[in-house]
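S1.2 Input.
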Amino acid sequence: MQILQFRGESWLSRVIQAQTRSPYSHSALLTADYHLIEAWHGVGVTATPLEDHPHSGGTWVDVFDVRADYDESAVLDFALRQVGKRYDYRAVLRFLSRRDAPDNDKWFCSELVAAAFAAGGLDLLHGRHSHFSPRDIALSPYLHKTQEILL
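S1.3 Output.
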């Protein structure tokens, strides 16, 4: 399992990057069989083959390996059980308001990544998953950037 960190170019990506002071606007999971599991605005949680990704062409993505012990099958199982759930717009607004967002059955990208790894026994960071931005995920001490790709 790898974590992908997107450096989007859309206006929404630019807003996320500015608000979180980061080059990253989106986080996703990449499975061993090259499926992308992600919480995507307007769509919710999806699992698609990497070659069928919904991202704009020309998006740079940093690929991170997770260098720690965790149960990869539990991470994958948790993430796949979230497929079809709605996107958590309210929690995303928390980054603007700095107010707590209640736990619910919806997800935004970095929250999903953090929760999936926690289900596999690894807290990428300490704190509430709904407080983690793509920037925070990239700062986890367990992540090691291995390559960058252009989608």
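S1.4 Remarks. The two ends are 18 Å apart (CA to CA).
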